[in-house]
Amino acid sequence: MAAERKVRRFCSVCEKENLVAWKCLNCLELQCSDCKNVHEKFSISKNHILIPLDKLSPSVMEEQKVKITSAINNQEQCDLFCINCNVRINTADSIMEHLTHNLDSFESFNKTLKNNIETLISKITLEVGSSKSYDDKKQMVEEKREMKREIQKRYEEIILSCKANMKSLHNDLDKFYKDREKHIKEAKKRVGKESTKLVKARDKLGMLQYKAELPQLQTTFITTKQQLEKYLSTLPVDEQIVFRTGDQTSDDIARDIGSLHYSIAASGKSGRSFQLVLIEKTGPTKLQTVSVITPCGDTDVCIGGVKHKTIQLVNLTRPSTPLNEFTVTFYDFTSSADGSLLYITDFKNKCLQAVTKLGDLKNIKTFSPLLPTCVHVTSTHEIYVGIVESDSQNVDADSKRAILKLTPQGIFKAEFEFDLRGTRLFTVPYRCHVNETNKCIVVIDKYDPSTGRVIAFDETGEVKFRYSGFTASSKFKPFRPTNVSCTQRGETIICDIDNHSLHIIDKHGFFIQNLSTLDVGILHPHSMAIDSYDRLWIGTGHPPTDTKQKGQIYITRLTKK
Q1: Binned average pLDDT, 10 residues per bin, the chain of 561 residues
Q2: What is the b/e burial string over 289-323, where b = at least 16 CB atoms within 10 angstroms of the residue's CB?
Q3: What's the angle, vertex CA 259, arms to CA 256 and CA 264, rounded to 5?
Q4: Last residue of some domain: 65, 86, 108?
Q5: Distance CA 281, CA 261 (A)
Q6: Where is the domain boundary, 91, 108, 125?
Q7: pTM metric for this prediction
Q8: Structural domain for 450, as ranges
Q9: Distances in Å between the alpha carbon of 445 and those of 137, 454, 459, 480, 481?
Q10: Are residues 292 and 208 in the same domain?
């Protein structure tokens, strides 16, 4: 081992190219073995300490040499501390056995250790103090009462809203029938006059058909026909109205009133809370809104703008200059696990297409007359596709709103449309993802144009959780999820574009945290994707009226506090 560490350098003493193997900590000279032997014999240097280079790396020696040399040169006073051996060194003679160890001055190490002890004591005091709240029954009772008051308040708001809606319906109904009665009364006078004239014309035409000449009969026929048309035009249009019940289910009522969630990190003190760290920000893209984003490598990414019907491959260094670009009326797209294919739901042609890196198109499956919406590909290459007969929020018994599970070749494997109770799972499956940790299918249900919810269910159709946003404060706008993804640990991340935030839910559906993207300068997060390095890519969008602004790409990472 000693021979391996020797290198050919000029010896500082003999100034010849030789195998340098020693360094004097007093003279700070590199010496060959011959000069080292001579160095030790001189009276002026016989007490110097020479270190074999195979015992101490150059980098470590440079860090320690000032402390060690100072101690050696001052034989009467030495105050070091060996961190490896946890021992104080009081004499210069005892330094030799600790030369290869991590040394520090006793004063410096003592100061650092005391600071660390104070920090630990403060942390323990804080944790012990906060844990006492677990036994504070009075506080728990008050929290329970406050929550009940919030539930009651929300219930009363819903009741008032229902009463106001009912009153509005009654007023509209009364007004309709009042207007209808007035309309019929006015029309009755006109109809009476015209009907008298029409009866006379009818009788006259009946007599003339047996007596009059043909020309006279033709003239009378035309006149009578015109009178009939005039009579018909005076008849009132008898408008009818019907009452159709709303399509809210018991789940919708629970959503409107609210629901209870485990808020493990609501206080921000839990070890499970997260922070968003910005890694890189690009310049503006050519798209007003980056509706979909899919990483295709370390610096290349596929982005799409639904409004512009455009999919682009861009590099982060020049996002406004696409490497490749093609036009397609898509609803969603995603890449395969190995990144070799891009799967696109072609809304116009009602099919699922796959695109290679060379730009070759392959039709995987046609759904006509149904329309494909969201798409996701798992690590095992299974494809999940949303299908609808219409992307409107109007749903009836004949509507088709489902998620299909396909093989990579497009062969049907399963369909998810109803839960175990036979209740329809979603209105419009807008985006979907599969949580690889528990195999739950997570879907954004766009049940309303301006809002939505997230539903997670397993392959038996059992609903694991429904999430309609954390809107406990009036400062939040209505929850409008635009994308969903899952981390390698199993947390579900949801983009909330209008609130500039990410909602984090654990794999059991318990709310963890609401992260503001404004903290790292991200406005209107619209799309996102997590790559193999656990980096979170975010694409931004802007309101349709803000045509001058362009969407941007951000690379971030979720880290635990």
Answers
A1: 44 70 74 82 75 55 54 59 82 67 79 84 71 64 84 84 83 83 77 78 78 76 80 67 60 56 42 81 91 89 88 90 89 90 94 87 94 96 96 90 96 94 92 94 92 92 86 67 94 94 88 90 94 92 80 92 72
A2: bbbbbbbbeeeebbbbbbeeebbbbbebeebeebe
A3: 140
A4: 108
A5: 34
A6: 108
A7: 0.57
A8: 256-268+281-560
A9: 40, 6, 17, 10, 9
A10: no
Residue 258: C-alpha distances to residues 163, 322, 436, 515 (Å): 19, 45, 29, 21
Question: Among residues 467, 533, 549, which one has the least CA distance to residue 502?
Answer: 467
| Dihedral sign for Cα atoms in the order 6, 7, 11, 12 | negative
Tell me how far apart the alpha carbons of residues 244 and 256 are, in angstroms, rounded to a whole number: 20
Dist. CA 297–CA 69, nearest whole Å: 51
Sheet containing 361-366: order of strands: 330-335, 341-346, 351-356, 361-366
In a domain, 123, yes or no: no
For residue 146, tell me if it sits in a domain. Answer: yes
Q: Compute how many other C-beta atoms are within 10 angstroms of the C-beta atom of residue 168.
A: 10
Residue 532 lies in a domain: yes
Letter string b/e over residues 53-81, b meaning 16 or more CB atoms within 10 A of that residue's CB: beebeeeebeebbebbbebbeeeeebebb
Both 84 and 228 in one domain: the answer is: no
168 and 307 share one domain: no
As a whole number of angstroms, the distance between CA 292 and CA 529 comes to 9
Query: What is the C-alpha to C-alpha distance for residues 136 and 138, in angstroms, rounded to an integer?
Result: 5
- Phi-psi category of residue 500: left, alpha or beta, with phi > 0 → left and psi -120 to 50 → alpha: left
Domains in the chain: how many in total? Answer: 3
Q: What CA–CA distance (Å, rounded) separates 506 from 264?
A: 10
Residues 55 and 195 in one domain: no
451 vs 449: CA distance, rounded Å:
6
Instruction: List the structure tokens of 54.
Output: 């195979």
CB-neighbour burial class of residue 131 (10 A; exposed 0-12, middle 13-18, buried 19+): exposed
